[in-house]
Amino acid sequence: MAEARAGEMRVATIGGIDVLLTPAWAVGTILLVVLFAAIGHYVFHHGFANALVGGVALALAHWVSEVVHNLGHNTAARSTGHPMTGTRLGFLLVLGTSLYPADEPELAPELHIRRALGGPAGSAVLTVIIGILALVLAGISIGWMALVWFLDNLLIFTLGAFVPVGFNDGSTILRWMSRRGQRAGA
Fold this sequence. Notes:
Layout: E1 9-14, E2 17-21, H1 23-43, H2 48-80, E3 86-91, E4 95-99, H3 109-137, H4 143-158, H5 169-185
Parallel strand pairs: 2-3
Antiparallel strand pairs: 1-2, 3-4
Helix pairs in contact: 1-2, 2-3, 2-4, 3-4, 3-5
């Protein structure tokens, strides 16, 4: 079970991991609604009400993508014998972070890398499904939402996960690859 910090709320257990919401999650959700509604209104030329409803739906879809991403991490983590305990939503307002046991033993770099690759793999599967949905819904009024969700999932959770920015899967992979190389050279 993931340990909730002060102010956090455990909202579900999905696939064996606890889903925790931080206070920052609410702020992030509002920002996502505004961003997605603006895209609906200014890019896809929908009226304010339609764009706002789409913004709310897309903000929720974004969080679904985050949970699926972490379920991918958990699937890979379970295969290593070192599963996750949860995911904390609201990291950097609009992202989540994987939670592992505090007393987890030192793991080999290969295990860290395998766990890190699980998130983008899970997101890639969801991206394909959403892409098909976007194609099916193209040309109808809600099609813009499927397209935006597809792009969000592709650019943030699938491909974006590999861009090493210091806190994400790409950074984890690079860090543990370099440690693996140092260990091999020792």
